[in-house]
Amino acid sequence: MAMTLKVYEVNRTGTVRVLREEAEVIPFERPEVSHEFPACECPTCAEGAW
User: Fold this and answer.
1) Measured between alpha carbons, how far is 21 from 42 in angstroms, rounded to an integer?
2) How far is the C-alpha of 21 from the C-alpha of 19, rounded, in Å?
3) 4-41 pLDDT, tens digit each
4) By the 8 A CB rule, do 21 and 15 touch?
């Protein structure tokens, strides 16, 4: 299944600037290890409160 992706930025006055036009992409089945978020190191997560 493909999806579309468009990259843009909005400044604080609400002006939109397109950085990359809309394109069709095919998502990974599972993200590569380099694309995963690192483990959270905040005090709450470090204590195992979650």
Assistant:
1) 36
2) 7
3) 999 999 999 999 999 999 999 888 888 777 767 778 88
4) no
CA 10 and chain centroid, separation: 16
Residue among 39, 40, 6, 30 at smallest CA distance from 20: 6
Torsion of CA 38, 40, 11, 7, to 10 degrees: 30
CB within 8 Å of 15: residues ≥ 6 apart? none
Is the whole model's pTM more than 0.70, yes or no? no
Q: Which amino acid is at 20?
A: R
d(CA 8, CA 20): 7
DSSP state of 46: H
